[in-house]
Amino acid sequence: MEIVMQAVISGLLMGAVYGLTALGLTLIFGIMKVINWAHGSFIMIGMFAGYWLWALTGIDPYLGLIIVVPFCFVLGYFVQDILIKPVFKSEVGVREPIGVLMLTAGLWIFLDNFALLLFGAFYRTARTSYTGLTYRIGEILVSAPRLYAFLITIGSAYILYVFLKKTKLGRAIRATGQDRDTASLMGIDIYHIYNISFGIAIAITGMVGALLVPFYYVHPSAGFVFDIRAFIIVVLGGLGSIPGAILGGLLIGLIESVGAQYMTATWTQGIIFGVFLAVLYIRPSGMFGFKQEW
Amino acid sequence: MKTRRNSDTDIRDFRSPKFYFPLVLVVVLFCIPLVLKDPSWLQFLILIMFYAYLTCSWNIIGGFAGQLSLGHAAYIGIGAYTSTALYLHFGLSPWLGMFVGGVFAALVAVTVGYPCFKLRGAYFALASIAFAEVIRVVTENTYHIGSIEIRGPRGLLLPPLGHSPLAFQFLNKAYYYYIILIMMLIALLVTYRISKTKLGYSLSAIRNSLEAAQSLGVNVARCRVTAAATSAFLTALGGTFYAQLILYIFPEGVMGIIFSCEIAFIAIIGGRGTVFGPILGALIYIPASELTRMYLGGGRLLGIHMVILGIIVMMVMLFQPAGVIKPLRRAYLSFSKRLEKQSQKA
């Protein structure tokens, strides 16, 4: 029983990180209706940014968030403005836009391999003072950096939620997501909103990368695992839904962690994909998504 | 409508460049191995045609039907595994096993893939990835089916037999060259036929507007199933060819997501939904990736060929989203028209 509880706890902790990854994707997906295929690459960038800050200047990865997050926001803002916007504009009237999907797929290949070119295929780990630290609650051990990542994840998801619900900019973002033509008629500069939303999404994604640094390996293709997970979670939780992304992330984390107690880890991968396909067949709008035409 | 009929009669006119250009090209392709003997260069050409073949097959569902599949490696894997396992266990010649694999892949495409067809755009792409990954994971965790060995992640090894045509193994690369050349031409012919028949027109109608096509009486489900089955069948044949060329298959190698993405990239670079786009894409992508891998890939510049690929894909999406074939076709048409005028004058 303790083993199961242990698996549940570590599944939830990791699941929150998956959820935060999916949160960035769901924001882009929900507002721009495009898939950012290079999402995992931005996690990798966040990872390397956090790692090099720590390795070169000794700034603690959590303190480094103050630098990594704005950096990723600016990066996302300009990637959207320079690369994605032209393709997006040329496809406004197209029924099934896949141009951005292919463009970001190219960006994914480019970024991952450019990092490989720069940093080599080494597995790096940041050995901070709390890397191996664990808290003991009863019989259950909780890894400290994972717990911190969990808490920061939940906190930032809440902040984002409030931002989107209460602020003027947040309302403009949601309005653009609901109906871009009407939003445009109401005087919202939708391309500016797209740039900002993409920037916010990439900032979140970079934050995930930096949060992973203390307890995960840093590698040019480390983001890919999270990439596929994030797609699944977004569909599972429902397009554009923030609670859906977090809950979907927790669910995937649970399946992975508890499943690994009973079968080999490769099978849990298959089960996750199976669940994903089942959701697509039965309820493509996901747990919290609103009904749309897919 | 009238112009189309005109261009059709053009093709049947033997003096028209539109008739003899492709013919000259095919003859040249058949003659290459007579001149070029170096096996590594032949291998290079084989690879180009292999990818062109796969992309042609992909194009039926990914281009003409407009459903961006990122899971076609699953069919390559099914084809490769079926023919190889049948050969190793029953001694069935891969020439026959290839068609068993093709039919099996088509069945999988129709039964398992059927529910995916209602999904659109990005959702179909995601579902196709998940579909391919499930098949890969299942293969990786299967060691036996009954008494047939699958050997999980370790993959299957074909014993090298030297020159043995019955077992689809040759020492001279020229044989593989001719086999893949003929396969590629058949795939081209199939896509050309599809683009000129009712099925092709129905598919492009569905691609443009599902509801409009439906309201005009196009049987959407049947068209898509036919396209998916044809595509899967042809792709699986390519899988067998790959297994016989490399003589070793393992799940990550033949069903990996990279393989699926490469096929889609080639189609996008060349021109999705056009007959010759896949050939053009393979002609750009394979040399770019193989040559940079050969000359720059080793040592310090790790992954440089993929960096270049990423840049090519992004540039194509930014500046020529319809594929490289679009400006080239215009140039080709004006060139052949000028030639025609000259021959008429003479």
Biggest sheet features of chain B = 2 strands, antiparallel
Q: What is the multimeric organization of the chains shown?
A: heterodimer
Biggest interface, and residues per chain? A-B, 48 and 44 residues
Q: If you average the pLDDT of chain B, what whole number results?
A: 85
Strand content of chain A: under 5%
3D shape of chain B: globular
Query: What is the H/E order of chain B?
Result: HHHHHHEEEHHHHEHHHHH
Main attributes?
heterodimer; A: 294 residues; mainly alpha; ABC transporter involved in vitamin B12 uptake, BtuC; two-stranded antiparallel sheet; 11 helices; 2 strands; globular; B: 346 residues; two-stranded antiparallel ribbon; 15 helices; disordered N terminus
Task: Put the structure in a nutshell.
Chain A has 294 residues and is mainly alpha-helical. Chain A has helices spanning 2-32, 39-57, 61-90, 99-119, 144-166, 168-178, 180-185, 190-212, 223-237, 242-262, 265-282, and strands spanning 134-137, 140-143.
Task: Describe this entry's structure for a reader.
The complex is a heterodimer of chains A (294) and B (346). Helices cover 74% and strands 3% of the residues of chain A. Chain A has 294 residues and is mostly helical. Chain A has one domain: Orthogonal Bundle (ABC transporter involved in vitamin B12 uptake, BtuC). In chain A, strand 1 (134-137) and strand 2 form a beta hairpin. Chain B has a two-stranded antiparallel sheet with strand order 1-2. Chain B has a two-stranded antiparallel ribbon with strand order 3-4. The longest helix of chain B is centred in the last third of the chain and has 27 residues, at 220-246. At the A-B interface, helix 3, helix 4, helix 9 and helix 11 of A face helix 6, helix 12 and helix 14 of B.
